Amino acid sequence: MRILVLNPNTSAEMTELVLRVLAPMTPAGVELVPATGRFGARYISSRSAGAIAGHAALDAFAEHGAGCDAVYLACFGDPGLMALKEIAGVPVVGMAEAACRQAAAQGGCFSIVTGGERWGPILTEFTAALGLDGRLAAVETVAPTGGDIAADPDGSIALLAEACRRTVARDGAQAVILGGAGLAGLAARVEPDVGVPVICSTQAGFAAVLDAARNPPPKPVQGDLALPAAVPSIGLSAGLARLLGER
After folding, report:
1. Across all residues in the chain, what is the average pLDDT?
2. Does residue 198 contact residue 165 with C-beta atoms inside 8 Å?
């Protein structure tokens, strides 16, 4: 089984961090195929960077997706997720969607703690689109971006734990998601100081994509996630142009 681990930002270091965190969870016989965005932001912390990352995700899938049994969009916020689900013939799982659904399945309400102050409204809209707005207690952001946190994880633990405790006390969160590839692997270090379950979004997404790869749903043949009609294009990479133009 081959799983494409797709990081749509341009930080190879972030891709390597995700792979290190996933390695202990990877069953025998499963190969992780890493792909990093060819263009765009080093780390996604705004709507504009996220929009570019959606294009980069499609581009990376076109280049690296052949022969893979599932796609893991390993980026919180899931840029390009629905477009990937539309164009791919295999299951596609987004980190943020999977983490939110895992948190909601535990019962009660949950909060998201993440790096980068612009993420609040973006993630509030995202959870509403999933139909989980009634379960979201709050989005609690800290000033350092996910990239900053990845560069200094030891120095970020206290800040993240404080943010988690704050939303538990203020908003009544019964679980907290540490959202973002840059925060991968930190939930286990933060949870003892929080008092409620703390979910690693990177690990939650990977568990979901393993399940999807083992039990793939049929590709829709009708509706908005069915394979779209071929369309000519200008200015795209050769691989993405073929993906959109050939049937």
Report:
1. 97
2. no
